[in-house]
Design a protein that fits this description.
There is one protein chain. The protein is an all-alpha fold. It has a single domain, classed as Orthogonal Bundle (MetI-like fold), CATH 1.10.3720. It is 83% helix and 0% strand. The two termini are 48 Å apart.
């Protein structure tokens, strides 16, 4: 006991110094913290614009066009009507594919809970097969059609949703289930009033992730299968070596993802989880 006392005293002293210095405590909100917290998105956008301008200043225009040139290209595509038509095509693929992945992935999440040993190998199969291979298989099975693009989004999204649902089902409050069983509650009531509310944050997380990945995999599918969407136009511009148009479609895709996040997903998330806030 005596031999260990100096070491314990030294550890206690170090702990007191660290705690007193505020190293392990939450920082007090200062001006920089408030700026980042309230205007983080604006600051990030300004930083990206600055980095873009810096890169464009030191690179030839045919390799890295300036931001005004790219924005002018987006405006020109919009004036021609190409932007709206291609965007609607990709949006339709993302919505159909995401809806299919949410439905099938949710059902598969329940199968994972009930038949884990049987269902997990198929989940690993879906996770390990590269998305490029799914795109090639979609062309073989469905041809050069919008159905190929939707298939890629669905098959890549199923593991994302299934994993979230499975994790949510495993974390349902057991005490609530036992209480429902003690009063002989019907299965439909248990699912409606206990299981589904518990799954809401997991489903919302799956939806947000699914739609975010949906944009990427829809564009990937369109690169292979065509169909007139954003991915097809991006590939067509690359074939013509039209670098400003390639950057324009890439920037437009990023803007679409941000618009989806801030105008659709976040408001839905706040509404769905409003009951959790005190």
């Amino acid at each position: 006991m005596q031999a260990g006392a100096p070491g314990a005293t030294r550890e206690a002293a170090i702990g007191a110094v660290v705690s007193g210095s505020g190293f392990l405590t939450a920082p007090k909100p200062g001006l920089l913290f408030l700026l980042v917290h309230r205007w983080g998105a604006v600051l990030a956008a300004l930083l990206l614009v600055a980095l873009w301008s810096l890169m464009a200043a030191f690179q030839p225009a045919y390799l890295f066009p300036s931001l005004p040139v790219v924005i002018a290209e987006i405006v020109d595509l919009g004036a021609k009507g190409t932007l709206a038509n291609s965007t609607l095509t990709t949006v339709r693929s993302v919505l159909l594919g995401s809806a299919g992945a949410l439905l099938l992935g949710t059902l598969y999440g329940f199968f994972l809970l009930r038949l884990e040993g049987l269902s997990k190998p198929f989940l690993y199969l879906l996770q390990t097969v590269p998305s490029v291979l799914w795109a090639l298989l979609a062309i073989i099975w469905f041809g050069l059609s919008p159905g190929s693009v939707v298939f890629v989004v669905v098959v890549v999204g199923i593991p994302i949703v299934a994993t979230n649902v499975w994790e949510g089902l495993r974390n349902v409050d057991r005490q609530l289930l036992e209480m429902a069983e003690s009063v002989d509650a019907r299965r439909a009531m248990v699912v409606r009033h206990i299981v589904l509310p518990s799954l809401q944050p997991y489903l919302m997380s799956a939806t947000r992730t699914m739609i975010g990945f949906g944009w990427r995999y829809a564009v990937l599918g369109e690169l292979f299968a065509g169909g007139g969407g954003v991915g097809y136009r991006l590939f067509f511009a690359w074939e013509r070596n039209d670098v400003p148009e390639v950057f324009a479609w890439a920037l437009w895709l990023v803007l679409l993802m941000l618009i989806t996040e801030y105008t659709i997903l976040r408001p839905i998330d706040r509404r769905v989880t409003s009951w959790r806030t005190p």
